[in-house]
Amino acid sequence: MVSEATAYYISLVENVIDDESLSVEESILNIEKIEMQAKSCLTTEAYAAWNSDKISIQISRNK
User: Fold this and answer.
1) Helix, strand, coil shares of the chain as percentages rounded to 5?
2) I need a surface site. Which of 5, 19, 47, 51 has the fewest CB within 10 A?
């Protein structure tokens, strides 16, 4: 189970992925910004879980 903070960052990434008005480059930049915020706010374990979930989300959206 992920923490509330981890769930928050996951939802931010999902929102970026779902925003069809953004170009691919804009999406990547926004996700990178979210990742930097997550790195500074989450514990190592929580960040690892978040990063794993983020990759899973991106893979499932690309299918």
Assistant:
1) 85, 0, 15
2) 19
